[in-house]
């Protein structure tokens, strides 16, 4: 069936280090992927997206990598800051209803 | 910029009571969604509306009904609340299905 999962449910990093959050997806027909950030008590917030015709996309301090061969998605955060502490979700399109399918999330904790 | 606005933010219901969660967006988006978020389960789609005048079931529609009142508003109704519906509910909107979705701040619902 369709599923989006995460390799690491929790990640603790030192302030200033780079963070890498991983995500596996199973629907090879998915053609659009999004990373969301969710802070405690708030709704998910868009970070960056990538379409299946790309391997890499960069934003401000964030990079998303897509490996379609192994159906793997990653989010890289450069120079991680305390404000980056949150739960990060990957999401893919290609659900049977045409909707976004979300992974279970990875909690990122940044130590000062 | 208001974006997606949900009301109420918190609600406690007794089993069997009914209530309607309200959602409005001011981004002129065609598509709107209702998700529920439970610990360890990520976000799961309840219902969505690809455009004004249409609604479709998502992954977990049982116990819920929706109304796309107009392009701006999409409400979620619980006719007879059950403890299993205790969750955080998020409304979202996007320009079209399979694109970036913008989320509201959520409604934390407890059914006792």
Describe this structure as you would to a colleague.
The complex is a heterodimer of chains A (112) and B (112). By secondary structure, chain A is mainly β. Chain A contains no helices and 11 strands. In chain A, strand 7 and strand 8 form a beta hairpin. Chain A is globular. The mean pLDDT of chain A is 88. Chain B has 112 residues and is mainly beta. Chain B is built from no helices and 11 strands. In chain B, the strands form 2 sheets. In chain B, strands 2, 4, 5, 6, 9, 10 and 11 form a 7-stranded mixed sheet that branches. In chain B, strand 5 and strand 6 form a beta hairpin. The mean pLDDT of chain B is 93. Chains A and B meet through strand 4 and strand 5 of A and strand 5, strand 6 and strand 10 of B.
Provide a short characterization of the protein structure.
Chain A has 112 residues and is mainly β. Chain A is 0% helix and 52% strand.
Features:
heterodimer, A: 112 residues, mainly beta, 6-stranded mixed beta sheet, 5-stranded antiparallel beta sheet, 0% helix, globular, B: mainly beta, 4-stranded antiparallel beta sheet
